[in-house]
Write a structure and sequence with these properties.
heterodimer; A: mainly beta; 6-stranded mixed beta sheet; 5-stranded antiparallel beta sheet; 11 strands; 57% strand; globular; B: mainly beta; 7-stranded mixed beta sheet; 4-stranded antiparallel beta sheet; 45% strand
């Protein structure tokens, strides 16, 4: 089945810094989503981005489907950005396959 | 206020007992899903339902059962046959079982602990 790898596994930032999270996948996909899991466990949808570029405030994402990767950019990070960021893909109709996540800690 | 609700938030169970986790959505979504998350891991699919009165096994269905009698409800039963049931359980829904449906949306989760 399709493999999803996220990097880096852990990231520590000072408040105000920028960061880039990467998601590589091993096969063509029809769907790619980025999620933020907050400290209480809630999974929050960030982007539905099977291809192209999207922006939402300080966050933006780019998926290059032909090269099988996606990037999540976080600018001017805040302590509330802390948590785990997951990339998930599917190529079988509706079954999402999740990466292991990137754990982000933003220090004040 | 549209969304997905799960109850209870925390659940404690003795070994050998079955327990049912609730998932309700008022988004009018056709498809619903159950995932399991273990500490430090991503999510794994337990069961999914493309439409009411239909459901399919996911990647780790052993020891679990589901029903989908109503569009808005997709309860998950963790049976005594599940060997390691302690985990965080997340329910999700999407407009349709389709790759262009806009993605899946998640409830707040239930933390199950077996004592």
């Amino acid at each position: 089945g399709i493999q999803v790898e996220q990097s880096p596994p852990d990231l520590i930032l000072q408040e105000g810094a920028n960061s880039t999270l990467r998601c590589n996948f091993s096969d063509s996909v029809n769907n790619l989503q980025w999620f933020h899991q907050n400290p209480w466990g809630q999974l929050i949808n960030l982007f539905y981005i099977p291809s192209g570029t999207k922006q939402n405030g300080r966050l933006s994402a780019t998926t290059v489907a032909t090269e099988r990767y996606s990037l999540l950019y976080i600018s001017s990070s805040q302590t509330t950005d802390s948590g785990v960021y997951f990339c998930a893909v599917d190529n079988q109709g509706g079954k999402l396959i999740f990466g292991q996540g990137t754990e982000l800690s933003v220090k004040p | 206020d549209g969304g997905i609700t799960q109850s209870p938030k925390y659940l404690f169970r003795k070994e050998g007992q079955n327990v049912t986790l609730s998932c309700e959505q008022n988004l009018n979504h056709d498809a619903m899903y159950w995932y399991r998350q273990d500490p430090g891991q991503g999510l794994r699919l337990i069961y999914y339902s493309q439409i009411v009165n239909d459901f399919q096994k996911g990647d780790i269905a052993e020891g679990y059962s589901v029903s989908r009698e109503k569009k808005e409800s997709f309860p998950l039963t963790v049976t005594s046959a599940q060997k390691n049931p302690t985990a965080f359980y997340l329910c999700a829904s999407s407009i349709a079982w389709s790759t262009t449906s806009g993605g899946q949306f998640f409830g707040p989760g239930t933390r199950l602990t077996v004592l």
